[in-house]
From TrEMBL:
<keyword id="KW-0032">Aminotransferase</keyword>
<dbReference type="InterPro" id="IPR005814">
    <property type="entry name" value="Aminotrans_3"/>
</dbReference>
<dbReference type="GO" id="GO:0008483">
    <property type="term" value="F:transaminase activity"/>
</dbReference>
<keyword id="KW-0808">Transferase</keyword>
<dbReference type="InterPro" id="IPR015424">
    <property type="entry name" value="PyrdxlP-dep_Trfase"/>
</dbReference>
<dbReference type="Pfam" id="PF00202">
    <property type="entry name" value="Aminotran_3"/>
</dbReference>
<dbReference type="InterPro" id="IPR015422">
    <property type="entry name" value="PyrdxlP-dep_Trfase_small"/>
</dbReference>
<dbReference type="InterPro" id="IPR049704">
    <property type="entry name" value="Aminotrans_3_PPA_site"/>
</dbReference>
<protein>
    <submittedName>
        <fullName>Adenosylmethionine-8-amino-7-oxononanoate aminotransferase</fullName>
    </submittedName>
</protein>
<keyword id="KW-0663">Pyridoxal phosphate</keyword>
<dbReference type="GO" id="GO:0030170">
    <property type="term" value="F:pyridoxal phosphate binding"/>
</dbReference>
<dbReference type="InterPro" id="IPR015421">
    <property type="entry name" value="PyrdxlP-dep_Trfase_major"/>
</dbReference>
<comment type="similarity">
    <text>Belongs to the class-III pyridoxal-phosphate-dependent aminotransferase family.</text>
</comment>
Amino acid sequence: MTDDGVKTGLRDHLLMHFGQHAKLRDGEYPLVIARGEGVHVIDTDGRRYLDALSCLFCAQLGYSYGEEFAEAATAQLTRLPFNTNWNTAHPPAIELAERLADLAPVGINRAFFTSGGSEAVESAWKIARQYHVANGQSERVKAVARRTAYHGQTLGALALTGIPALKEPFGPPAIDVVRAPNTGEPDALAQTEAAIIAAGPETIGMLIAEPVQNAGGCFVPPAGYWTGLRELADRYGFLLVADEVITGFGRIGEYFAVPEVVPDMITIAKGLTSAYAPMGAVLVGDRVAEPFYRPGQALSHGLTFGGHPLAAAIALRNLDIFERDKILDGVRELAPHLSSRMHELEALDVVKEVRGDGFFYAAELDVDDLNPIRAGLLRAGLIARADDRGAAVVQIAPPLVCEREHLDEIVDKIGGVLGESLQKH
């Protein structure tokens, strides 16, 4: 496909996700990525970028395991290209559910597979609702989520998302959501409990939260925060859900990042397959799954492609690679270095605060316009996120296979771009 053909096809036929399509008519085109190598991607013009965002927090293993995943995919496609988990099952989904039960916190032994993270979050809500109805508490119709949380884009997940600009076109939310403070706010637990009491604790079905909050810029919870959430859930009878779509599978150095306690459900996606295939899941605790095993009861939810045999085979190979190549060990070893380097950015006047954990960091900025910084990062050959949906931040989530020199390059380039912005303003 020629460069002109790419631009014509993009302009005239592809509706991009969150795409500002008017810019295409004005000749302003986004990156079109043609291939990947290691932790780098190359666009259709041959420009090379270090992908410091793992393509939206997904590409844990970078871009050079294709042959190995292709081998697993070919074997599965030859054996059984497709079957649902809709009142039938197939070996890859069963084996993957077993593997995930081995990795998950004690007491979480079942997996409901989806096609991605939004579906996983929405499925968690539907499971929570059915759990409460089965136990005679049909009045538990509300959920609790943080003010600036991002939990997905399907209508149920969007209701849980706390970013107004993403929600405005779609009318009344599908779920009645009580807003709790972001993790980093003072007295967050006390404010959360106050919001629950004001809403009526007997009406709350679940509380969902990320172990490290993405939207707003990598808010790390203080010690005891998750213990406090667990205590609130137990005191008032609702379910606690850890949204690990981003943090799961090594982003913070462990398979699961939720600290201190065992949640009732965990939502996962992205790193489950390192994005070599689309897949998500809800990992469900034994207590929550129990009603679906009662005589005459059923789980009233299903997705045609949830647990696709090909995706399950890719996820299994992904877990094999994590173990064989000691991916988590690499993150744990280099995370202190990345933390130290990122905090060096606080010496710049434009940087208000650096926060994060593992391979997941944000620098909060004192700027009014992020567009020059976005452009500067790309000119520097770096893909990072410059986001102002909460605070203005530059955010990174590099592939877990990055070496020390890659992390240094990321921080050096961010520092250079921020330094340029200071000189111009």
